[in-house]
Design goal:
Helix content: 55-70%
Strand content: 5-15%
Number of domains: 2
Number of helices: 10
Radius of gyration: 29 Å
Order of helices and strands: HHHHEEEHHHHHH
Largest sheet: 3 strands, mixed
Distance between the termini: 109 Å
């Protein structure tokens, strides 16, 4: 009998423990659901505030006039700085809540792998995009020969003349159209179809860069460059990105990357990219106007691989013998 009582006691104790365990699990689940709901509501509120602040910043940007007096521009830039700081605070608060929410999603994934797994991947992708944006902003600053965490709105960079130009959408679109009119094959694929990349304007300073199928353009050009030259250097980076994407780009005959490397065989990849960028700027801004500033072998390569339009080539041929010889070589093929 004692044995039976002992067995019942053990069984009873075990049952109580199971009930308590289930209750504890349910309480944890309820707390997670409440916390998740609260975070989602807060994220929605912050998203609304973010949109409002962004709209305010857009309106301030519309009011900005390069022709205004210095006092007016300082006042407007101060207002822009304030809005950017408010936006940064909102985004930081959102990121904190996204991180908490992602943690809850990952814990939920232990109970429901498929459903929570899809959600965690979505928020992981959002985090990846934010991390990528920071890396791109730092890389653009480095390409503009600035320190990686260079602030934008500091007093010594507010220009005293009337030529301040910001890379807003209209300006970037206009400059890209003007550059494409000269380098008319830059957005053509191998079949000759135009396939323009996505262009993203990022809140930073520096020279733009190519990233996968995107062109990243900082809102502000470096203080040592005009916006025109900055955009041309960005397109040079896009050209170089396309020609060196393949792992064996050095050994691909007929490709501009491998052919340019033959001109400078002792250059490292970094120096080769820098040299190509500098030469591309000269090609678009100088040689396109008839000023012969490139080495003959680079000019001949660009004439063939980054060609001007037929009409443009004919006009250049009338200006200088060197272009006439290049055009004649084209016609003999």
């Amino acid at each position: 009998m004692d044995g039976e009582d002992s067995a019942r006691s053990i069984s009873l104790t075990s049952d109580v423990a199971q009930v308590k365990s289930k209750t504890k699990t349910k309480e944890d689940d309820d707390r997670r659901r409440e916390k998740k709901t609260k975070l989602e509501v807060e994220i929605g509120i912050f998203y609304k505030h973010e949109r409002e602040k962004f709209d305010d910043l857009t309106e301030l940007n519309k009011l900005f006039s390069p022709d205004g007096d210095q006092g007016e521009k300082l006042s407007q830039l101060a207002a822009v700085r304030k809005k950017i700081m408010q936006l940064e605070h909102i985004v930081n608060e959102q990121n904190v809540r996204y991180a908490e929410l992602e943690g809850i999603k990952l814990r939920d994934a232990e109970d429901d792998v498929n459903s929570a797994g899809r959600d965690s991947m979505k928020y992981a992708r959002i985090k990846e995009e934010f991390d990528l944006l920071i890396k791109v902003m730092r890389s653009c600053a480095a390409r503009g020969r600035l320190i990686k965490n260079t602030p934008i709105l500091i007093d010594k960079w507010i220009p005293l003349d009337q030529r301040l130009s910001v890379n807003i959408r209209q300006n970037v679109e206009k400059l890209l159209e003007e550059s494409e009119a000269i380098d008319h094959t830059i957005f053509l694929d191998r079949e000759g179809n135009r396939k323009a990349p996505k262009v993203l304007i990022v809140p930073g300073i520096g020279t733009g860069m190519a990233w996968k199928d995107r062109i990243m353009v900082p809102l502000f050009a470096p203080p040592t460059l005009t916006t025109v030259v900055s955009i041309i250097r960005t397109l040079a980076g896009y050209r170089w990105h396309l020609t060196t994407t393949s792992y064996n780009w050095k050994d691909m005959p007929g490709e501009i990357g491998s052919m340019y490397r033959l001109i400078y065989p002792d250059y490292t990849f970094t120096n080769l990219e820098k040299s190509f960028t500098d030469d591309y700027v000269k090609w678009i801004s100088k040689e396109a106007l008839g000023f012969q500033v490139l080495p003959p072998n680079v000019r001949a390569l660009f004439w063939k691989k980054i060609p001007f339009s037929a009409t443009h080539k004919q006009n250049l041929a009338k200006r200088a013998t060197v272009y006439a010889k290049l055009l004649s070589a084209d016609m003999m093929k």
